[in-house]
Design goal:
By secondary structure, this protein is α/β, with parallel strands linked by helices. The chain is 17% helix and 43% strand. It is built from two helices and eight strands; from the N terminus they run βαββββαβββ.
Length: 127
């Protein structure tokens, strides 16, 4: 046994969400995430802890009824396709996809669970 689970990065974002299942489904649909560990509360009142992998990164989450909004930026090979998948899951546009001055094609989608996902593809890098 090592000091961290195999194939986990040393740093993982930890999101507080109102409904972990909503965010897990969103991640699976939009980013082709793989669901990892999901631990239900002992009293059966929801998810205590859940994890999903996007590429080489793990996102962790716990359910809190009054979760605050959070923002996560994710680079994908095709921002337009991911943006459309996010909309098809019931996501709400926070910012339309647009080409920004930093070389990214980026837009924001709220997943309905207090998380805004900034979906981006870098088209050119400018110093």
């Amino acid at each position: 046994m090592t000091w961290k689970p195999d194939n986990y990065s040393s740093v993982s974002p930890y999101l507080m969400v109102r409904d972990a299942e909503t965010t897990l489904r969103f991640l699976e649909t939009v980013f082709d995430a793989t669901r990892l560990r999901v631990h239900q509360r002992e009293n059966g009142s929801g998810v205590e802890h859940a994890e999903a992998r996007i590429d080489g990164n793990v996102i962790m989450m716990g359910e809190v009824p009054e979760a605050a909004e959070a923002h996560v930026h994710v680079y994908v090979p095709d921002a337009e396709a991911a943006f459309e998948r996010a909309l098809s899951t019931g996501g709400t546009i926070v910012q339309e996809l647009r080409r920004s001055g930093d070389g990214d094609h980026r837009g924001g989608i709220a997943d309905g669970n207090g998380i805004v996902w900034w979906i981006s593809t870098q088209e050119e890098y400018r110093h």
